[in-house]
Design brief:
7 strands, about 190 residues, seven-stranded mixed sheet, globular, 6 helices, alpha/beta
Amino acid sequence: MKALIACEYSGRVRDALIRNGVDAISCDLLPTDVEGPHYQGDVFDIINDGFDLMVCHPPCTDIAVSGAAWFKEKRADGRQQRALDFVQRLMDAPIEHIALENPVSVISSKIRKPDQYIQPWEYGHGETKKTCLWLKNLPLLKPTNIVEGREQKMHNLPPSKDRWKIRSTTYQGIADAMGHQYSEYIRNHYSK
């Protein structure tokens, strides 16, 4: 089984899939934060390379509702439409199983509603950060470790040069759940 993790520099989902026996590669315009299979460049350079699964984390800067105050400007100069076109291209990729992850955004009103909302506290992190999943031929992600705590730690981070990067990194518990549950589902799907 081959997996592409699009728009991922952290390597968290990639490595979770590798730990579950998947031949996985991450791809981002940025270099990977940790050693491992990584293509630094445009995801569309490799998207047709025979992947069975794609987990993608497209940039949310121009589409997340947390930035709604700037939507008028982003619509006027075309940034929001370009971001939506990128999301649609990912969703339309010729890959059998796709999970697209993003915060609450205009994807819901401009493309389609998400299949699922998840929270970090369902996967071992005592925080809130409502995250949407748009799924193609994949099951809903099941909570693995419901814990106390409903703080908005990521939302309340102080300004810093790395704030955007910290806020966009996939929580380890969510990455582990994706790695295990998606690989098991696809193995079972192909063994029938």
